[in-house]
Structures are given as C-alpha cells and as structure tokens.
Design a protein that fits this description.
Layout: E1 7-10, H1 17-29, E2 36-38, E3 41-43, H2 45-48, H3 56-61, E4 66-71, H4 74-88, H5 99-104, H6 112-117, H7 119-125, H8 127-133, H9 137-140, E5 149-152, H10 157-167, E6 187-188, H11 190-199, H12 201-207, E7 219-220
Parallel strand pairs: 1-4, 4-5, 6-7
Antiparallel strand pairs: 2-3
Helix pairs in contact: 4-8, 7-8
Length: about 220
C-alpha cells in the first residue's frame, strides 16, 4: 500500500514479490531495507510486507488507490518454488515422513516430477511450501477485472515504467531470491506439465490472458 502515491500492489509468492517489496520499502522510507532483530528474532522484508490470503472486504472494497497485480506463469512459479525452497534452502530436509509416505515415493529431496506428483502431501507437511505454491487466486481473488492493470513478472519493464510515471525516480532495483538452479536449465515431462496445468487451472482461467506470450524457459521432455 503506497497511499502517498495512491497506488496498491498485490503480489504472489515466487512472483518477483521479494524484489518489489524491497523497492516499496525504499520508496516509503528513503533507504534500503536491511534485515534486523527484535526480541532476538531476525526480521525479513516479508515480515513487513506480508503476502496474505485474499479477502474481498479487506483488500478491495475500501481502496481508493489504483490497484495493480503482478503475476507469474504457474509452471514457472512451481519450478522456482522447487529450485529455491526445496533444492537451495532444503526446506523438506527434515520432514516427518511416515512409512506410507515412503511407500508412495514421497522423499525429502524430490525431483521436480515427484514434487509435483505429491504436491498436496508436501503442502500438508510444510507450511512454507504451501505458502509458496498456493494458486495465485488465493492471493489475488477470483476476478481479474478488479485490477487497474495486471503485469507479468516475466517482463517487469512495463511495471517499473508505471511506477516511475507515478512516483518519479525509483531506487536501484535489486534482484532478490537468486538461490537455486537457473530455470532455463530445467526440464520437465509432458505428464508433469499436464499435472501442473490441472492443479492451477483456475489461475490460467482467471489470469491467463495477462501472461506474456514467450518462449518457455524450460524444456519439455
């Protein structure tokens, strides 16, 4: 919420949200954000700008600002979730797996195909995985026409241009959350791709027209 400039920005996890939150903090405060401690707990940018579940009464009805949303192709979001949260940060490394999990092929370091096949179970086991893999609809609501404009995070140049037009000179734009394999190196099976499209069918129905037509950043095998 940048009320001084009469604009609000709705974000989804794994959709350039960290970068945009850092820019928003510097716009509001005049200096870059750095992690800090309160009560011996390290506080990150996401503690200040939280990505919350969408509630119409809270998030839309009383807004007088222009409201923008930033989205990302669901396949790329899930690839990024697996690359950063699973492989780089190891957030599944200490899962309390059951014998039934082992029998079904649920592992602590799943391949991307296994991660997608058992995504429901991984969400049950890890709140962080759940948060970063929930459909965009859960964060943005079910109607695209509520937004002044929707931007695809695959190419944020138009988004930054919009901010400059409304705010003026922007802070230096950081590139956050770089941990994990380059998505251009990733390969996924056609079966896995079909499964992702099924899981995120509503996202494609609601926001598909706003996704930039582009060559895939991954190979389909």
């Amino acid at each position: 919420m940048l009320n001084k400039y009469k604009l609000s920005i709705m974000l989804v996890p794994k959709g350039a949200s960290t970068t945009i939150k850092h820019v928003a903090f510097e716009i509001e405060n005049g200096y870059p954000f750095k992690p800090f401690f309160t009560n011996s707990r390290r506080r990150q940018i996401h503690h200040l700008y939280q990505s919350r579940m969408f509630k119409f009464d809270r998030d839309m009805v009383n807004w007088k600002n222009a409201v923008f949303a930033v989205i990302r192709d669901p396949v790329e979001r899930l690839l990024s979730c697996h690359s950063n949260r699973v492989l780089h940060l190891g957030e599944l490394d200490k899962l309390p797996l059951t014998d039934e999990d082992h029998e079904k092929g649920v592992t602590m370091r799943p391949s991307f195909g296994t991660f997608v096949a058992h995504l429901h179970r991984y969400r049950e086991l890890s709140d962080k995985i759940k948060h970063h893999s929930l459909p965009m609809e859960r964060f943005l609501g079910g109607r695209a026409d509520r937004y002044t404009r929707i931007f695809d995070s695959a190419d944020l140049s138009e988004f930054w241009t919009m901010l400059r037009e409304r705010i003026g000179t922007l802070p230096e734009i950081p590139h956050e959350q770089t941990g994990g394999r380059d998505l251009k190196e990733r390969s996924i099976s056609g079966q896995t791709l079909d499964r992702i499209k099924q899981i995120y069918a509503r996202d494609y129905d609601i926001f598909g027209d706003f996704l930039t037509a582009k060559e895939n950043t991954f190979a389909v095998s």
